[in-house]
Amino acid sequence: DFMEDLWERMQLLSRNGWKVKSVPKPHLSFEAQLVVGKSHRFHPVSCPPPTFTMSSSEILKGQEKHEANLKYPQRLRRLHIFPTNKAENMQPVDRFVVEEYILDVLLFFNGCRKECAFYLVSLPVSFRYEYLMAETIFSQLLLLPNPPFRPIYYTLVIIDLCKRLCQLHFHLWW
After folding, report:
1. 73-123: per-residue pLDDT in tens?
2. Nearest partner of 76 among 139, 159, 158, judged by Cα
3. Is 95 within 8 Å of 10 (Cβ atoms)?
4. Confidence bin at 125 (pLDDT 50/70/90)
5. DSSP secondary-structure letter at 126?
6. Is residue 112, in this structure, part of any structural domain at all?
7. Is residue 39 included in any domain, yes or no?
8. Helical segments of 16-150, H only
9. Between 139 and which of 33, 79, 90, 160 could a Cys-Cys bridge form, CB atoms 3.0 to 4.6 Å apart?
10. 75 occurs within a structural domain
11. Domain count of the chain?
């Protein structure tokens, strides 16, 4: 189960002092300024009580759910294609973080396949994640009953990823 798996990863992360290499830390270069900066107090925020006066609330909920599914597609159903030893130097929570990076890039660049491939190849992580990227993309492509985006989008992203990765490895080799 997704939640059980995530909970186990969070427990392990808690025992290890909440240190995750795959999450960028842009605030570190400003840490001295942040420490001496002025602190502000916020007033408590209160939400208004929910109103249930709608007569056709079930219809509205169905419409809202449909619109939410269109705007925010299903996230991740794991498809494990490769053996676990392919994940080198990856903490258990790193897999979850990188999967979320990949899904966010696929969602944000839907329709812009070349930009999507560029950003997927240059995620801010310190370990190789090509296997994880392949599993995540194929998990989305094979999601039932329908993938979040048209299958041609995933196909073109995979082709552009192969081109980008070949260019990257060719430049590193020379």
Report:
1. 555 567 777 776 666 667 778 888 888 889 999 989 988 889 999 999 988
2. 139
3. no
4. confident
5. S
6. yes
7. no
8. 31-36, 57-71, 92-108, 113-121, 130-141
9. 79
10. no
11. 1
DSSP state of 104: H
The residue among 171, 167, 85 whose CA lies nearest residue 128 is 85
Is 168 a domain residue? yes
With tokens 């194929």, the residue in question is 138
- Tracing tokens 């400003």 back to the chain, one arrives at 30
pTM over 0.85: no
Between CA 132 and CA 149 the distance in angstroms is: 19
Domain hosting 131: range is: 82-173
Give the pLDDT score at 77.
Answer: 65
Q: What is the CATH number of the domain that holds 160?
A: 1.25.40.180
DSSP assigned state of 165: H
Q: How far apart are the first and last CA of the chain?
A: 44
